[in-house]
Design brief:
This protein is mainly alpha-helical and 209 residues long. The chain has a domain of 140 residues. The protein contains 7 helices and no strands. Helix 2 packs across helix 3. The radius of gyration is 39 Å and the shape is elongated.
C-alpha cells in the first residue's frame, strides 16, 4: 500500500531533522574528545614543569650546601688555623690535640717572654679580624643559619680571648699576676677548641643533608 501523500511529506520533512541531530551529537562528541585530550596534555605539561622546577630547586639546594661547606672550611683554614700557627710557630701536632695541651704550649710561650708574646699575639690577631663579618655575610640554606650564627659567636669569643691575654701581657702590673695570666691563656686555648667544636657541628650537619 502506498503511503498517503501527507505521510510521505511528513516523513520527508522529518528525515533532515534526524540527520541534523546525528551530526550535532557527533560534533559534540568530537569536541568532548578533543577537550579531554587537551586537558590531558595540560596536566602532563604541568607535571613536567613542576618536576623540572623541583629538580632545579634540588640542584640549587645541593649547590648551596656545597658552597657553604667549602666556604666554612676555607674560613677555618685562613683564619683560625692560620692564627694558631702564627701564635704557636713551634708547636707540634701533639700540642694541638686537646685544650690542655694547647694551654701548656701557650703558657710556655708566655714564660719565655711575656712582653714578646704580647707582640706576637697582636700581629696574629689580624688573622681573626675579618672572620666574624665573613661568617655573618655567608649565604647558606635557612636550616644552617643557627649553626653558622653559633660559629660566628665562637669566632668573636676567640678574638676576645686573644685580646684579653695580650692586654694582660702588655700591662706590667697584670703581667706579674700569674693566676690572671694563666687563666687568660687557658681561656684562649678553650676558645680555639670551642670554635673547632662548632665547626665540627656544622660540618656534620652538612654531611647529613
Amino acid at each position: 500500500m502506498r503511503p498517503f501523500a501527507g505521510e510521505r511529506e511528513e516523513q520527508d520533512s522529518l528525515a533532515p531533522v534526524q540527520l541534523d541531530v546525528s551530526d550535532d551529537q557527533e560534533l559534540a562528541s568530537m569536541k568532548r574528545g578533543k577537550g579531554v585530550q587537551l586537558l590531558a596534555v595540560v596536566i602532563i605539561a604541568l607535571g613536567t614543569v613542576s618536576g623540572g622546577v623541583l629538580a632545579m630547586r634540588g640542584l640549587d639546594r645541593d649547590r648551596a650546601y656545597e658552597q657553604a661547606s667549602a666556604a666554612t672550611q676555607e674560613l677555618r683554614r685562613t683564619h683560625v688555623t692560620a692564627f694558631v700557627q702564627c701564635a704557636l710557630p713551634f708547636a707540634q701536632a701533639s700540642n694541638l690535640a686537646s685544650p690542655e695541651r694547647l694551654y701548656a704550649a701557650i703558657a710556655d710561650m708566655v714564660e719565655r717572654s711575656a712582653a714578646t708574646y704580647a707582640q706576637v699575639l697582636r700581629q696574629c690577631e689580624s688573622k681573626l679580624l675579618t672572620l666574624p663579618p665573613a661568617l655573618g655575610s655567608l649565604r647558606a640554606p635557612s636550616e644552617l643559619r643557627g649553626s653558622i650564627a653559633r660559629l660566628r659567636e665562637s669566632s668573636l669569643q676567640l678574638q676576645q680571648a686573644s685580646s684579653a691575654l695580650r692586654s694582660a701581657l702588655e700591662d706590667p702590673a697584670q703581667r706579674e699576676d700569674y693566676v690572671g695570666v694563666t687563666a687568660r691563656a687557658d681561656h684562649l686555648a678553650k676558645a680555639v677548641f670551642a670554635y673547632d667544636a662548632r665547626d665540627t657541628e656544622l660540618r656534620e650537619t652538612l654531611a647529613a643533608r
